[in-house]
Amino acid sequence: MRGIRVALTAFAVVVLAMGGGVWARADAALLMEEPYAEFGAFNPTGHAAIYLNHVCAESPTRLRPCRAGEPGAVISRYHKIDGYDWLAIPLIPYLYAVERVQDVPSTANAELEAKLRDQYRREHLLALAPDIVAGKRAGEAPGGEWTQLIGASYDRRIYGFQIETTAEEDERFMDKFNDSPNVGHFNLLFHNCADFSKTLLNVYYPDGIHRNFFVDVGITTPKQVARSLTKYADRHPELTFSTFMIPQVPGSIKRSHPIDGVVESVVKSKKYVLPLAVLNPELTAGLVVAYLTDGRFKSPNDAEVEMVPGETETKSVEPAAGTTRGAVPGAIERRRPLPPAAGPQ
Fold first, then answer.
1. How far apart are the first and last CA of the chain?
2. Distance (Å, whole) CA 35 – CA 318
3. Fewer C-beta neighbours within 10 Å, C or N terminus of the chain?
4. Which run of H or E residues covers position 243?
5. What digits encode the pLDDT tens for the residues 96-120?
6. What Cα–Cα distance (Å) separates residue 5 from each residue in 1, 2, 152?
7. Residue 48's closest CA among 182, 178, 148?
8. Residue 256 phi, psi dihedral angles, 5° rounding
């Protein structure tokens, strides 16, 4: 029962926490994803992607309006995946590397994760990540960053920041990205995944998302995009805005790391801040002031929406005392039940 509960909970978090948007209105959500593994420990800024519940993937490089029952697609910038700048993946495969919510495993280890990813790759992504053609590993899955396209929830916890859109805005968005060159130019400092998410959100809300030169030294980070989107929503209360959390699938895969901004990662790490304080106390004091002034931003840890099999409605977790908008979901009410899971897209 717990396994079914985990799978349905995670799916309900994304779809139902968006105010029933799959059936009633269009929404765009920033997915702020925790860092993981050794690189994530070194660079704690994490990954950013955009989930659109009325825009679907005709292919990883072509967008179209969703048909009835389709839950939308996740779009993000990637590094060195067949030369493309951005790729779009249907929601359920992006999170779990399977096509149906009922096929999501209750727990996962590294072996199962690799198996599910390779199976989905062979069925849908061979053009982007073809088999190794020579040597001892001929016919096996290649290395590279294609693994980030699918099964994200095995590796990390994901926070969502959702804001409403219109059908006209979705149409303009699809036209823009279908008609523009899709050529990779990833750069960790100035053309990263958070920069791309900023660009996507600014298609819907021009000049709504900005860099922060004060707390991120001009580097766009997933946390800064979330902070900026939250502030934009605060300035526009007429827009429906809420947050949600997608838990990491239980199992033996190492848990992901907390997500930080640039200055935040320095200030909160003793191995960085203490030597820096000795070498340059003025600079260190400035970083601390920057962080305390505009760098603190709480991830919506209490935003999980729970769906219990057999019940007709889902229930949100009640917010903790003293929490504010941006730290917990904007809508704490009973949600619509999950519809029958759609078949392969």
1. 27
2. 27
3. N
4. strand 241-246
5. 999 988 899 999 999 999 999 999 9
6. 6, 5, 19
7. 148
8. -75, 170
Can you tell me the distance from the alpha carbon of 181 to that of 183, in angstroms, rounded to the nearest whole number?
Answer: 6
CA dihedral (174, 176, 179, 183) positive or negative: negative
User: What would the two tokens of residue 14 be?
Assistant: 């994304």
Residue 197: in which H helix or E strand, if any? helix 193-204
Residue 228 identity: S
| CA atoms within 13 Å, Cβ hemisphere of 208 | 22
CA 232 to chain centre: 19
Q: Which residue is associated with the tokens 């200030």?
A: 267
Structure tokens at 343: 């078949």
| Residue 192 identity (one-letter amino acid) | N
For residues 21 and 332, what is the distance between their CA atoms, to the nearest angstrom? 15
Q: What is the pLDDT of residues 131-184, one digit of tens each?
A: 999 888 999 999 989 999 999 999 999 999 999 999 999 999 999 999 999 998
Distance CA 70, CA 283 (A): 51
Interstrand relation of 241-246 and 73-81 (parallel, antiparallel or unpaired)? unpaired
